Amino acid sequence: MTQLKPILSHLDPILSSSTAAGKFKTSPYNLHRFRFHPRLTLWSFLFLLFIFIFFFFSPPSASSSGKRRSLQTAAFSPKARLSYNWEIKTRNSARTRSGSGFRVLVTGAAGFVGTHVSISLKRRGDGVVGLDNFNSYYETGLKKARKLLLEREGVYIVEGDINDADLLSKLFEIVQFTHVMHLAAQAGVRYAMQNPGSYVHSNVNGFVTLLETCKDANPQPSIVWASSSSVYGLNSKVPFSEKDRTDQPASLYAATKKAGEEIAHSYNHIYGLSITGLRFFTVYGPWGRPDMAYYFFTKDILRGKEIKIFEGADHSTVARDFTYIDDVVKGCLAALDTAKRSTGSGGKKRGAAQLRIYNLGNTSPVPVAKLVSILEKLLKVKAKKRVLQMPRNGDVLYTHANISLASKELGYKPKTDLEAGLKKFVKWYVSYYGSKKKSAI
Ligand SMILES: O=C(O)[C@H]1O[C@H](OP(=O)(O)OP(=O)(O)OC[C@H]2O[C@@H](n3ccc(=O)[nH]c3=O)[C@H](O)[C@@H]2O)[C@H](O)[C@@H](O)[C@H]1O
């Protein structure tokens, strides 16, 4: 239905003129005039026929090509909700401030990390085009609010899915992207038990569809994408190093991210795509994800609702290497800046290409119980806590990043401790929900 919007808006003047014609016909005065002027009726008919033939059979002129192509793309891209002049907006959004700037396609741009990365890229002068399907995994209102934020910064988001191969190739036709920052994914560890198909759809199928487009592009872009700390799974050697084993995923989410890393390897090997995977460690901060513990704990503490705090066997601590969004964004930009060019073009490899993986963590794990006590202090509300043994839901007990590789090669240096980061989050949360009386999730 929504894809018809551009078509209907295109036809609006015609629809309104036919309404006028309707009025004209029903007027006794005009009926009278028609009856007594058959030649006028004939000429009117021929005139309308001429207009019809002119519009439907003439080649697109320079000024109308944007509109005509929009109609075509709307037809070949049934999953995309494309606005009337989306191609023009896409082109403008991809414009760089200087000749040396990147043109970056950010998938998942209305997501948490996607929003922050897009804004940072745009502010430093790069061209940024967002792509997001605005799915309802969590409140779409938050995604729309992020979209507004991005629009104010000059970043346009195309509303479509990474599984839509036609839309992707159309985007590469409109803009010669130098880089792809691939952040669109089905996130969340525990939700994988409820909706396993969505993980395969986005994290495996969607990734392959995107890589297919990238390998066919000429020039091929360099790709940076979001893997996850969850690939370390049941690995018990800490801190987690990129050299450690990642063949024991504890959740389907982790398994699909690990699959992504292997898929990246094969596209790099066969087609010469330059690919960098970033293993994010429990990223948090303003404009974050409502499905994450720090976010819904805040909501529940404020509402006086009980929160569940997981612990391991024999009351062992469950802890995370919580990483603040601004630090992760710096890591993402550094990965883009140091990415070498892909070597292939049009689906053919011309030489070996770069393939990298980095941990982006904070290197200081914090127990979940401590996270809760920080929130209590910041919110000035005592939480209703229930401590229970971690259910078998895909969660792991502990994460801790070794970041020496990222620090050496990307200059990555996280600066924000959990208390400072949560302070910024809580400030944002209260201003976002407090003033607007919205509810999370
Ligand atoms: O680094 C990653 O790769 C992943 O990070 C994030 O996963 P997690 O580290 O599991 O974060 P999150 O759900 O906030 O749970 C935090 C802690 O709270 C505990 N937890 C959770 C829920 C609850 O009710 N009680 C509880 O104690 C829970 O046991 C855990 O110890 C992303 O969601 C994921 O998409 C992925 O990016």
Automatic annotation (TrEMBL):
EC number: 5.1.3.6
Oligomer and partners: Homodimer.
Keyword Zinc-finger: no
Enzyme category, top tier: isomerase
Compartments it resides in: Golgi apparatus, Golgi stack membrane
Annotated signal peptide: none
InterPro entries in UniProt: Epimerase_deHydtase (IPR001509), NAD(P)-bd_dom_sf (IPR036291)
Membrane topology: Multi-pass membrane protein
Family under the similarity heading: Belongs to the NAD(P)-dependent epimerase/dehydratase family.
PANTHER family: EPIMERASE-RELATED
The protein's name: UDP-glucuronate 4-epimerase
This protein's GO CC annotations: Golgi cisterna membrane
Reaction catalysed by this enzyme: UDP-alpha-D-glucuronate = UDP-alpha-D-galacturonate
Domain of life: Eukaryota
Keywords carried by this UniProt record: Isomerase, Membrane, NAD, Transmembrane, Transmembrane helix
Domain NAD-dependent epimerase/dehydratase residues, every copy: 104-341
Major subcellular site: Golgi
